[in-house]
Specification:
This is Transcriptional regulator. One of its GO terms (molecular function) is DNA binding. Residues 17-65 form the HTH cro/C1-type domain. It comes from Paenibacillus donghaensis. It is built from 24 helices and no strands. With 454 residues, it is mostly helical. It has four domains: 1-77, lambda repressor-like DNA-binding domains (434 Repressor (Amino-terminal Domain)), CATH 1.10.260.40; 79-182; 186-311, Serine Threonine Protein Phosphatase 5, Tetratricopeptide repeat (Alpha Horseshoe); 352-454. The chain is globular. The relative contact order is 0.04.
Length: 454
Amino acid sequence: MHPTTTIRTELEGFLRRKGLNFSQLGREAGLNPGTVSSIINGNRVMAVDQLDRMTAVLGLPQGYYYEQYIQESMVDTVPDWRRIKPFLYRCAELDKLDCIRQIVMLLLDNLIYSPLLFEVAEDFFNEGRSEAAILLYESVATSERRQHSERLAFCHYRLFTLRLGENQEDNLLAALQFEPFVDRLDEIDQLDALRDLANTFRSMRRWDKVDKIAKDMGTKAKIQLINAQQDRRREEPTKKTKRPLFVYLALSNLFRGAVSDARGDHNEALEFNYTYADLSWVKEEDEETRYWVKMLEAWAQANIWVCKLFYGDSSVIKDYVAYIEQNRNETLTGLLNILTAANQFDYEVDDIIKKFENEILSYIQLSQPASVGVYSKEVITERADRLLFELAKYNLKKGLYVLGFSYLTNALHKSILLNNDSFILDCVRLFEKYREFSSIETQTEYWNLLKEEE
């Protein structure tokens, strides 16, 4: 559209070319003649639904006039939220992110729009319109940056979860940017935020961070459990967490056990595992409580087996394999633990690798990870990469060089995609240790991967 024209002049031109009157245009657009007359005579600003109807009659693509509509109905006149809100939803439906960005810039300095934009952002978030939601959360966070409000903190929480992806450096940055805002959240939301942060740092093996956050989550969970008991006595309704409160206390011990395992303190890890294995103090008997009690008790038993594995006790492998066979969501984590222990204590696990060869192949081919059970896609991606590395080490130690290097180049490739520098370095060290046993073709593939990393 020529910059000197308006939507109204476009419609006038269409009427002249087609020889239509207001009634005929209204009939084609599904609008009454009075509405059409008011729009074309400049007595009424169109709603977005009316604009879409007119655009369709003119035979133009959906959203064709949106940029001009912003200028005419929001820049040249006083913005009206009754027009802006439905227009934002329509822009999100059509993926017109630039239009959303323009609207946000118009409203940015007026705090009155912050709660309204936040509500729309929440709708976008719940509908899975992530990019549109990010634009609105960012605008609200910028607008309220000096307010120290709970809404500001919650915007940063949403932005943190929406920005998580396969790139570990980006995930680390997102986590570090959000971490200072956790204490500004509602006390209930803090528990879910701490759980999400702990899982993110755990996927990056930042054990110092995991330990600090897990301790904090455990302390806050205990306080909320006491508060919940008092609320029940007063029969007052309270805001609820996504999971029962006792789960957060148990997860605190689970996370701290994982930290102890990673640091090689398996005695301490066992203590944490035994602590959350005992949930006899949980008195509720509803279906959700029973589900989580059963789940946590199973995890505790599995992690007790893992601790014994890393003590050098191979007698628990049979029980642990049976567990991961019955709990398919635990297959990846289980295989990773078994292979890591096998490399440390020279366990023979060829039969286990054979049993799960289809699952292992799926981890090699994994390109679009999804959450599995309680494991986020970031955790799944990181653990799949580590499993390939441990498989490479296992086979190279056994002299199965072709298979070992195949696993290793796959692990290196995934580490580069994840931008996981520490794991790239681990892959390089392992390759160099066995370089003399690699073929010319394998060395060429290896160098090509390293060039990609540069």
